[in-house]
Amino acid sequence: MSKNKKSVWKYFIYFLILIPFIFSLFHYGLYFGDKEKTLEHFYLKDGSEEFGYKRTVMGAYAGEFESDPKTGFYLLHNTKKIPVFYLENYFVDYPNSYTPPKYGEVAVYGYKTNEAIYALSIHNYNYNYVLYFISFFAGLFILAFFFREWKITWRGFENA
What we know:
Helix content: 25-40%
CATH class of the largest domain: Mainly Beta
Strand content: 25-35%
Structural class: alpha+beta
């Protein structure tokens, strides 16, 4: 086979790999693009209407509401404190009252507005921060084995 035919086959194979990738991008945009539209209005106790999107927001537990702890709590997402309100039927679906996570984070799935989140479900990731602590020591362990086998020189790595 000549050199020119080899390069044509090489580009043809690259093209065959690229087509499914581009197709998957368009498929994702067409299939999922219109799924997350604004939801219908839902009414709160005071009768006000809110628009919202169904979203999952994860963050640290930042305390209960001081005025009425039964209505919700604060979620620390990045550096912003977001109030999380329970919807009226939340404790019907989940009969026990909410307990904060132990050394972990909270994932809240619900209607997100600019001001607050109205929870449909709440999931605690207990002891999530312990995983970071364990991962730190695992990383040190891997680095120790790496530098036991390899030595850094000006030209790169060499066998130790």
